[in-house]
């Protein structure tokens, strides 16, 4: 009987520790999501898109407000971070656009930390890729212009 009592006490202790660890984990995740949103908002001018659309599978297309797309579920649902730091949830239902403001906690509950984290990573990678392409384009244009100016200068000497 003593052994069972000790096991019960140990189980109670581990359950308390587990609950405490879960509480700490949830607090850290909540803070991490809020920090990610703050960081993205601070970089709004670099990361925003002004051509965000949402589509139905029937072909209906709606243009949305500008912002940073934090989450897309298929083609009919999006969560956008706006310039005024609101999280807007959009869903197209029967060709009718539903829009509501959601909290970071709501986003976390419905998307999950891994989903948010992966979407943010993909967003940043895509913006880096676009910036690198623009750098190449700008350098090519600079080279062409320098070449043309050089030709003009040689022709007019």
Structure described in brief:
This protein has 157 residues and is of the alpha+beta class.
Question: Describe it for me?
Answer:
The protein has about 160 residues and is an alpha+beta fold. The protein has one domain. The chain has helices at about 1-40, 45, 105-110, 115-155, and strands spanning about 55, 60-65, 70-75, 75-80, 85-95, 95-100. Strand 5 (about 85-95) and strand 6 form a beta hairpin. Helix 3 crosses helix 4 (about 115-155). The radius of gyration is 25 Å and the shape is elongated.
Annotation keywords:
4-stranded antiparallel β-sheet; 157 residues; single chain; 6 strands; alpha+beta; elongated; two-stranded antiparallel ribbon
Physical arrangement of strands within the biggest beta sheet: 3-4-5-6
Question: Into how many domains do the coordinates divide?
Answer: 1
Multimeric organization: single chain
Element-level helix/strand string? HHEEEEEEHH
**Helical content band:** 55-70%
Q: What's the number of extended β-strand segments?
A: 6
Helix count? 4
Could you give the topology of this structure?
Layout: H1 2-42, H2 44-47, E1 53-55, E2 61-63, E3 68-73, E4 77-81, E5 87-93, E6 96-102, H3 104-111, H4 113-155
Antiparallel strand pairs: 1-2, 3-4, 4-5, 5-6
Helix pairs in contact: 3-4
């Amino acid at each position: 009987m003593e052994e069972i009592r000790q096991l019960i006490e140990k189980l109670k202790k581990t359950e308390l520790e587990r609950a405490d660890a879960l509480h700490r984990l949830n607090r850290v995740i909540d803070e991490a999501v809020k920090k990610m949103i703050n960081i993205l908002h601070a970089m709004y001018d670099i990361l925003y898109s002004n051509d965000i659309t949402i589509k139905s599978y029937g072909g209906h297309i709606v243009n949305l407000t500008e912002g940073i797309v934090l989450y897309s579920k298929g083609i009919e649902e999006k969560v956008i971070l706006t310039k005024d730091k609101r999280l807007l949830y959009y869903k197209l239902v029967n060709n009718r656009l539903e829009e509501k403001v959601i909290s970071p906690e709501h986003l976390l509950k419905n998307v999950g930390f891994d989903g948010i984290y992966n979407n943010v990573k993909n967003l940043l990678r895509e913006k880096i890729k676009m910036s690198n392409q623009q750098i190449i384009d700008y350098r090519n244009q600079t080279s062409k212009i320098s070449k043309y100016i050089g030709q003009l200068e040689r022709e007019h000497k």
